[in-house]
């Protein structure tokens, strides 16, 4: 599973910040949770998510949350539970076809029972925004781009090219300004007035002549 390498990076960031890494729930407890949910709510948690709960019992990092198992009352629960959150959101009442697995600042991440697809839904109206190939594709995309905020090499190269082009354009403008300043200094040293000054002086007699002709016509 490709997403596991990004999950390791997330855990490393957690440890670097002085926190515990995200750890999985024992397999027997995950299976017991699965059976309990199916019996009480008639909901079958997808196998991919059960495997994730074995590896990491939920995740909360950089504004992204994936729900954990619902712990017993006496157990401390740092990350929201899967079923309790769906009940709180009202997913089962609005549309029983979805099981919300987590969220980010942009989307709800969900499993669609009829198609067995993993989706990103609009946070307001639960409309489908993105369809992922599978669970691994969803987790890889979310962990890589939203949690770790990584950039692909191609995108990074494009940004570097844009930056280089901007720098080159600025250098060309700067070089032209320097050449113009040097030329004006040389003209002044030779005792010649810069072209701009000559042009203005040339315009003045022409303007006077135009005014004179205008006055004569009025008379």
UniProtKB/TrEMBL annotation:
Residues 192-219 have a biased composition (Basic and acidic residues). InterPro entries: Knr4/Smi1-like_sf. Residues 153-191 have a biased composition (Acidic residues). Signal peptide: none annotated. Residues 153-219 are annotated as: Disordered. NCBIfam families: YPO0640_fam. This is Knr4/Smi1-like domain-containing protein. It comes from Methylacidiphilum caldifontis. The lineage of its organism: Bacteria, Pseudomonadati, Verrucomicrobiota, Methylacidiphilae, Methylacidiphilales.
